[in-house]
């Protein structure tokens, strides 16, 4: 009598795959943001500040998972390079807004174009129809994360 072999699902496959893709993405992105204070973090701050929905410095730090002290030093470096400016938040004078300067907008556009090329190379194994589908699916997963990781810029009553 032959015993039936029960297949054990490989639950590590998703983790390995995500890790491989993330490492490749981060390695390539790092090369594209070396000229930016804070590298990828600096790019993320510029991107959020450009988005228009969230300018409060503390809220941007929360959104990006940055310690407030790290955020302060990062914004200091971006200010020194004339990429952003700080202004008192009209909704809360104790808080500071982070706003892009014209130089910040230009550099963000340049770096965004370089990162788009990285993403195109990373997604090259997918065909033209699969790429937007993949982006949509990964976005849905990200938006479905637990409430404690929620985007503070889109939460009701947010400080943005």
From TrEMBL:
Q: Which Pfam families match?
A: MarR_2
Could you tell me which InterPro entries the record lists for this protein?
A: HTH_MarR-typ, MarR/SlyA-like, WH-like_DNA-bd_sf, WH_DNA-bd_sf
Please state every residue range assigned to the domain named HTH marR-type: 11-143
Q: Which PANTHER family match?
A: TRANSCRIPTIONAL REGULATOR, TRANSCRIPTIONAL REGULATOR, MARR FAMILY
Write down what this protein is called. HTH marR-type domain-containing protein
């Amino acid at each position: 009598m032959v015993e039936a072999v029960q297949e054990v699902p490989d639950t590590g496959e998703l983790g390995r795959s995500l890790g491989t893709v993330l490492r490749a993405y981060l390695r390539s992105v790092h090369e594209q943001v070396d000229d930016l204070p804070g590298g990828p973090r600096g790019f993320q701050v510029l991107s959020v500040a450009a988005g228009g929905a969230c300018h409060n410095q503390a809220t941007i730090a929360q959104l990006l998972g940055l310690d407030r002290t790290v955020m302060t030093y990062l914004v200091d470096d971006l200010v020194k390079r004339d990429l952003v400016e700080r202004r008192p938040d009209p909704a809360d004078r104790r808080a500071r807004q982070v706003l892009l300067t014209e130089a910040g907008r230009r550099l963000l556009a340049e770096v965004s174009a370089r990162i788009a090329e990285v993403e195109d190379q990373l997604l090259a194994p997918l065909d033209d129809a699969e790429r937007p589908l993949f982006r949509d699916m990964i976005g849905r997963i990200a938006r479905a994360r637990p409430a404690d990781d929620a985007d503070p810029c889109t939460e009701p009553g947010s400080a943005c």
